[in-house]
Write a structure and sequence with these properties.
The chain contains seven helices and six strands, in the order H-E-E-H-H-H-H-H-H-E-E-E-E. By secondary structure, it is of the alpha+beta class. The chain is globular, with a radius of gyration of 17 Å.
Length: 175
């Protein structure tokens, strides 16, 4: 971020918009703000650093540009090609939790260019192929932690009816 700011690409006071496709499960508070809320680059950076806000991290990656972040990571010594393309936290949650292991197997079977296309085209609705004609806003939010998998596809129709399916799976422990 500092390099992009120093280059004049944008400033610490630049406004970022929290859209559904940039909200990430896990830690943080920005994911709970209403869609299309605004946050400055500085506030997002502070939240990313101070409370590990996943949505803040993803907003900053989106603003700086994935390839710019990859170039900086490479220059700083993160040269493992398995880190290309750099995953946002949301993409990581979808790959490890939404319809696992289907997305992960498909993603790993692709070369870097194919992985970039897969992230751009398949991750937002977790491959659910929800019909956008049935609702102008269709998105997926999913994640997992040890012992818990969660996925919520949501379609918001014009009328505005919300259709939501939430599937939580937790193991039961005997003994």
């Amino acid at each position: 971020m500092a390099e992009r700011i120093a280059s004049g690409a944008f400033g610490w006071d630049t406004t970022l918009t929290i859209t559904p496709e940039l909200k990430s499960p896990g830690s943080g508070e920005l994911r709970n703000r209403p869609d299309n809320s605004k946050v400055s680059v500085l506030e997002a950076a502070k939240l990313m650093i101070s409370i590990s806000d996943n949505t803040a991290a993803d907003l900053l990656i989106h603003k700086a540009g994935r390839k710019n972040v990859e170039r900086t990571a490479w220059a700083w010594g993160a040269r493992d090609k398995r880190n290309m393309p750099l995953l946002t936290t949301r993409e990581l949650f979808v790959l490890k939790g939404a319809d696992y292991p289907r997305h992960t197997k498909k993603y790993l079977s692709l070369e870097t260019t194919g992985q970039r296309m897969y992230l751009a085209l398949s991750i937002n609705d977790a491959g659910l192929a929800l019909d956008k004609a049935q609702g102008p806003s269709v998105w997926f939010k999913g994640g997992s932690e040890p012992g818990v998998h969660d996925g919520v596809p949501v379609a918001i129709a014009d009328n505005p009816t919300n259709l939501s399916l939430n599937c939580d799976y937790s193991p039961s422990w005997d003994g």
